[in-house]
Specification:
Helix 3 (25-45) packs antiparallel against helix 4. This protein is α+β, with helices and mostly antiparallel strands. The chain folds into two domains: 3-76, no CATH class; 87-243, 2-Layer Sandwich (Alpha-D-Glucose-1,6-Bisphosphate, Chain A, domain 4), CATH 3.30.530. Strand 4 and strand 5 (166-171) form a beta hairpin. The longest helix has 23 residues, at 221-243. It contains nine helices and seven strands; from the N terminus they run H-H-H-H-H-H-E-H-E-E-E-E-E-E-H-H.
Length: 244
Amino acid sequence: MTFMDLEFPGDVRDARVRAGRNISELERWLSIAAGVGLAGYGLAKRRGMAALMFAAGGALLVRRGASGHCDTYQLFGINTAGTGQDTRQALGGSAGVNVEESITINQPVELLYRFWRNLENLPQVMRHLESVERVTDTLSRWRAKGPANTTLEWNAEIINEIPNQLIAWQSLEGSDVVSAGSVNFDDVGAGAGTRVRVRLQYNPPGGKVGATLVKLLGRDAATEIRQDLQQFKETVERRTANRE
């Protein structure tokens, strides 16, 4: 037992608990509520092995919420505890680089939205992306080519979604690149297709100085997104033509 344990046991225990947390407060309460509900359903509606399975599953969810720790998140290196404020701080004021690009694609909103929402499709149309791995319905792991043959990795969370209209996301704590962005899908009229608009705010390694150097070398984010949107357009239009 250390001096700190003797003098401030409550503070030390609290610090240790907080250090082990890797899920947000909202997730904690949702886990507890879901766990209580699942256990109660199993005990009230089921018998035998089924009741035990429901009760065990509920107990695991309650434990996840009470401890603030998720073993699956730890396995994938994900931490959503307090990450929203970290991202806002990192991109606040003049720290972030802002980019907006758009393109009109002669395809229906539903098709374009569905392609983009399946995030694992994105490396097909974004040349800098090596892979996107789905972790949950809203959490994913990204791997991209960085400058000078480096590799950048980050975890991202979908924070806002309106089917066939909007997908918004932000990176999570510990990412190589702190970023937030959105893609909007707007029907521009009968037979005129869909306008796809991407907004991106990011803080690359080296901050704005690093972004300026990358731009001078011809790999700035605006150029990348413009080219990716053109590739997106060509890919979905070609696939549709091949089906006809």
